[in-house]
Protein 1
Amino acid sequence: MGSCTRRHFLLSICVLQMLFVIERQVFDFLGYMWAPILVNFFQILFVIFGFFGAYQYRPRYLVAYTVWSLLWLGWNIFLICFYLNIGILDRDSDLLNLGTGSVSWFEENGYGCRPTYPTNITSEDPYRPVRPERVDGCLLEYHIVEVVQSGIHCALAVFGIFGAICLGQTFLDEDDSLKFPKTQPLFLPHISPLHVVE
């Protein structure tokens, strides 16, 4: 019964991860954030591995899911540091958009946001999107929204890693009991030292 509960826990975490990563992927596509789009694609792939590993009792899928979840956790911690400008990281740099100049969709389109664009844009690169000079009235600043999203993904990754390790251990214990069943020793006639044939 414990295996079933662990299995349902991991399946629930995988479903939540899939919902949140698809939501994030949509908004990253809208903002043309190419590095997160690529990493989100791998997250979708490995969440499917985790789901099928739990559903079909495949420990190897769970191992792949767990290893990727550790990398995903690191990526989201990096995003939190990036959007909070920790250390040498700068959220206004072209690191996440791979040099295209695009930014988070939430910078201009967040709830209540009113962007103000520059009037003279002739000196800028024509292939880079126009970025607003100022954004007023936002309920939440875009970097706070991104940090909250990354925090949710970190929490789900920790729960997913925990669930996959517990479930994988259960699967391996069950496999060991099937591979090495307890059998009766072979019947050998009892030979006592008194019945030695000369």
Protein 2
Amino acid sequence: MATITHSQVRRYTQTLVGIFLGLWLNGCTQINSRSTTPQGDEKPKVVATSTIIANLAEEVGGGEIQLTGILKPGTDPHVYEPVPSDTRVLEEAKLILYNGFNLEPGIIKLMKSTGTKARQVAVGEVVKPLQLRKEQQVVPDPHVWGDVKNAIAMTNTIRDELIQLSPTDKQKFTQNAEKLTQELTQLDSWITQQVKTIPPAKRQLVTTHDAFQYYGRAYNIPVAGTLIGISTEEQPSAQTVQKLVESIKKIGVPAIFAETTINPALIQTVAQEAGIKLAPRQLYSDSIGAKNTEGDTYIKMMAGNTRTIVEALGGSYQEFQYQKK
């Protein structure tokens, strides 16, 4: 039998100690890496369809949720065709917030056909809709956010759904919703005052598509005519264009309006044939504006639209400024 020397024992012991020390350090590293995993990975995943709902959800949810908006600023929800990445986003979500009333038909169809287990909430459908005629039937008008009071109701729904999703963040969601509601309440009153400055005879709207009925009824500025109905999928006939031209000549409004999500070519033609001015600024209808533009939030979008309308129709505009209480 070979004799084991003291030096061999010492080297063997050192090797074992090195192995155990390495395993121990590796274990500590793994534990430490788990403990420092970014908190964002643990936040509930929320998906919003329209840019308007995404903005309201962002304001209420703050940093407590992982929010993904499917539609990008300037995208028309009526005609949006989902892409493969939308399926993955919907399947991974814990909560899906969509407008409803068939505003975003492509996304709604995809949402209903995916295997998502997320709670699906039609935020816009908490509002009693206006009923408008589309071809041979009456359908609910999906553009509910045109009345800021409806946006307040939508904000409260988003708050309640987020609380149900993450009860430990109830206080934060409640505080955020209260702050947003205060600002929306002031915005609502401000719009009323701005529209009142328009001379009554000129206080009428003519727009590209029928997206401003809620705004018109809430702030006493009737929609006198539109080129197409509530969905931008519609294509106006030459007869429709001519009827709108004749109507504009009769009512005598000083300007008509294009919209940011719709090609302005046809409404420009209407303005030219009617011999009337096309407002120099376009209205935000179905989407907020791109980041760092005048309308990149719901509140700024509504304030921007009001400025556009008031200035083009001969009113006196004063900038909206939120007064903290």
Protein 3
Amino acid sequence: MASKNNKNKLKKYQITTFSTLFMGYGSYGLNRKSVSLALPAMMEHGLGPSEAGLIASSQNLAYAISKFAGGILSDKVSARHLFALGLIISGLITVIFSYSNSIGMFTLLWFLNGLAQGAGWPACAKLLREWYSPTSFGTWWSLLSSSTNIAGGISPFVAAYLITSYGWRMSVRVSGTVSVVLGVISLISLINSPTDVKLPSFAAPKKKDSKATNNQKNAEDSVYSLVKSPLLWIVAVSYMSVFCSKTSSTDWGQIYLMEERRQSQYVASGFTSSLETGGFVGSILSGWLTDLYLRVRNETNTVKGRMPVAIIMMAGVAVCFHLLYFNVHEHTSRFLIAALGFVLGACLYGPIALFGILATESAPPHLSGTAHAIVALAANVGAIISGLPFSYVAKSYSWGSVFLMLEVVTVLTILIMSSYAKFVPKKSKSKTQ
């Protein structure tokens, strides 16, 4: 009877934890993109392409730093505090941004916003590992990461309405306020671990402190081996490529459609919304389907189950970029543009979810955070490249040239990913069933 009560109690806490993380991390994503959605309106009021790129890159640079640091920090501080305070601080900075006027202040505030944003996902990953079974980790990871897609699918229309009705400042202000409110809710409702409410945790138990000194050298050797792993660097390079493509598509896609393909604000916003909607589907399916494949085939090496799916999706990214550059024009129907955005989003966000899972699973349990921090850093380097450097490409050539270049880079990335089989052990199936 006690066991049944514990199961019911655990289920209630799991629902509360996941719901809070889902809404909160969705708000992280909404906050992160609030200025990107306002950039066209800001550029109509005198903001230049290079200045827009500087603002975008300042956040991406800070995010790359803070997400790496957040992965380490999440092992030392309360994940609940890290998640909630990061959301509150990010929201407050966004509200202040809406009242600012100078390029210097815009850049500084958006850099600070990026620092606060890095607290979100490391805290999510730690809480997920505490509250959910490893056998379904990939599915819950994908479901949670898809929260930004839902927020991203709704926010372009809300932002377009607020911008056209009240101006870009109100749109940014609303986003920041929502983050502050959800941050307070997260601080109240989240619990760090099932053990805090006298339930067993799914996370692996930590080694006793008395053994820390004796194992320090072995741990250092393990970190060295991890950094030397060719498979980790394949994942890191691929993550950097797809994140660059994703950030470019969400940040510059609507500007490209409006300025060079003569589409309206609502059609361009619809494309961005479709990206996020497709991303929601692709993110969930990638984790769920590969989890299902691993269970059905009794495959213990997750790389063999996940990497081929990532390669197929990256091929879809290349095709979508080709169509976006060569087949979209002023008279292309709204439906086709939205459909293209949906497929592109699914093919972008699927690998993003898989690369994070692969990095976490391919490392020893005590180094999974470090492995994810490394590939996340690479991913955010890709996001930085998509900002100021790509804005210079657009200024010198065109926004279309950016997407043509991304097509070429994606094809090269697929070739790199295809070499993964050389570094996977031949015997990967379990001998027992």
Protein 4
Amino acid sequence: MLFDIPCIIFAGGKSSRMGEDKALLPFGSFDTLVEFQLHNLKKIFKNIYISCKEKSKFNFEATFIEDIKTSSTYAPTLGFVSAYEYLESDKFFVISVDTPFITLFVIKELLSADKDTNDATIAKLNGSIQPMCGIYHRSLEKKFSQMLQDDNHKLGLLLKNSNTDYVEFKEEKPFLNLNHPHEYQEALNILNS
């Protein structure tokens, strides 16, 4: 059974630590990391969107949410503001393009912990929050707009000052984050083993 909540893959980052656009790195049998994510998440969610600066850099079919053009910011904040504008739903699930090993177990745990009274329900790995893996509610729309206006992009601070529930996880692999070339290599090794 597929989940109704919209899922947004955030793929609009600068990838400065990687040295090239991580969303476009080849991964497994896929031409790009974002297509790998899309393929896997399609088995879990009915509707998947890709948050990005420019959809023209992708050469495959998908539903893209392009960042609003009023800002040159390379922060998830802009993607959130654009997502709230684009979608009509009260909440959505977000995942960063560079966490390719996210599991159905993690997603189910977050969805079952989420309550309508929450502003957000976010994953925590061994005590450390994972702001790009969780559910964000419409109730945060104004706060995100304000953050963008103030050029403040601290998601952790927003979550701390909102009605956020955290779900604690112990297994590290689903949260493996590909920021540097060595982490990309490590992920390819895991995939091939």
